[in-house]
Amino acid sequence: MNNSSDFISQSLRLLRERALLLFVAALLCAVAATAFALWQPPLYRSTAVLTLTDWQAERLSRRDPALDKNPANVGGAAADEMSRALVMLKAPAFWTELNAQPSQLSLEHKRRGNLVALRWTSQQPGQASQQLTDLVQRWDQRLQQRFITERQHLMQQAPDPLLAAELQQAEALHPFALQWLQPPSGGDKALSRPWFWWAVFAAVTGFLLMFQLLLFRRLQKCSQ
Q1: Among candidates 218, 195, 212, which has minimal Cα distance to 31?
Q2: Which of 4, 30, 97, 223 is most deeply buried (CB count within 10 A of its CB)?
Q3: For the domain 44-190, what is the CATH code?
Q4: Which segments of the chain belong to CATH 3.30.1890?
Q5: Which range, of 1-10, 109-118, 169-178, averages the lowest pLDDT?
Q6: Complete edge-to-edge strand list for the sheet that includes strand 178-190
């Protein structure tokens, strides 16, 4: 109990005697954090929502057996198709070809849905929307190339008039698999920088660290 009382007493005394030093330490940390936050290059963000093209949705509905045409199963097939498309999007080779960083893109895809929400960030003013558009176009082209290659391989194994017609349609489609439900928007205005919260966090951290250091030294002297 005496140790606890002594600790509280020393803490209160330290706050009274070193209040100015603690305030200066907190202020310096806040200024440094604010400068760091403002020094960072501004970011621009564009958002969009994608879904499968009507041709893809129709193809997936034809793929299932005649007795399996309920909307739940067709929707599940579309969701699975979008999941496979996202695997290609996350491939390192795709980003190397795009000359961009995966960290620039964040997305949200519900497991049983065929909608994908995209958020693209860029350090170039006015370029985020165009960069997001370019990404989706290249992604769609890769999906088209993969589909055509797979169908050509099947045709070599077993020629089929229906498969040949589907292949001919696939080669002529632009876009092939992905279409905008909500086209890219934003990207012209820089995101607000959270310098205030950086400053508050740094000030509190600096205050506590300096307080703990001074208190530790004082308690050491008292124990000697």
Answers
A1: 195
A2: 30
A3: 3.30.1890
A4: 44-190
A5: 1-10
A6: 105-109, 116-122, 44-52, 178-190
